[in-house]
């Protein structure tokens, strides 16, 4: 029963609250856009509604960035639609050419978020005008502009979310997913079994989170919200390094060969995995709640003990183990150790 409920309601209360807040803001922006467009007696108010919906983002800064790009994209689409309508008329060939041109120039000028909107606007100008293309294009631009403008205002004043707040939330989620992936790899080291389907799901989620974190970090810097973040910029590098280390660990345990050397440090590695997982989870909680008192004493102790055990093992096995398997084992061990060191560094800079 609990498993079924978890599938139906997979998100936490805080995440559900965020989804509700974003949905509410989009609904408000769309409604206000429709009301304003109708009050101005524009012909197609639903274009304002569409613009308000597609431009709304989770933070005010990203909505502003998307809004500016899409206003420019709308203008590009309008101009290209008019030019092709006047020069070539409305036909399948001019349609394809206008869409290609609008998307090309948006991409060329690095307005990637506006490319599809520009193509869409150029197409409706070319295909739907029943009078002067200039007048039709002006009305479509005004409707789109209203939708974008309303979305910007709503996101700025109605339950605003700052990039720094969103960044902390995404950092917390990334740490939790990294811990789950890390545990899956360490379990493979101990048991030899590996669920690739689950691992691939974790990888996709982590990559999406890291990409979102990169965008939010840029937004924090551009909006000068560092004072709200209170996290060292080194976290961006450290989190990616942890991700790369765990991927390296995964590759090694999947290609290793059966050998007694892999069992020699199993107990120490289990302890190290437990302490590292605890730091992952504690960091995830701390970054979300603005805590700064995460302890790494237990992790430091286990790292020291495990390294001492490895040095003794190195003396015993140096002449009896195959070179390839020695390299795999030591690479795996030092990578696991590096994950612990990076987590320590993240705690120090919290």
Low-confidence stretches: none
Q: Percent helix among the residues?
A: over 70%
Oligomer: single chain
Major β-sheet annotation = none
Elements, N to C (H/E) = HHHHHHHHHHHHHHH
**With helices defined by DSSP (H or I, 4 residues minimum), what is the helix count?**
15
Strand content: under 5%
Shape assignment: elongated
Structural class: mainly alpha
Count of strand segments: 0
Structure notes:
By secondary structure, the chain is mainly α. The chain is built from 15 helices and no strands. The chain has helices at 2-8, 13-39, 46-55, 60-88, 92-108, 115-128, 133-157, 163-191, 196-222, 226-229, 234-255, 261-264, 266-289, 297-317, 323-348. α2 (13-39) packs antiparallel against α3 (46-55) and α2 packs antiparallel against α7 (133-157).
Protein traits:
350 residues; mainly alpha
List the helices and strands and how they pair.
Blueprint: H1 2-8, H2 13-39, H3 46-55, H4 60-88, H5 92-108, H6 115-128, H7 133-157, H8 163-191, H9 196-222, H10 226-229, H11 234-255, H12 261-264, H13 266-289, H14 297-317, H15 323-348
In brief:
The chain is mostly helical and 350 residues long.
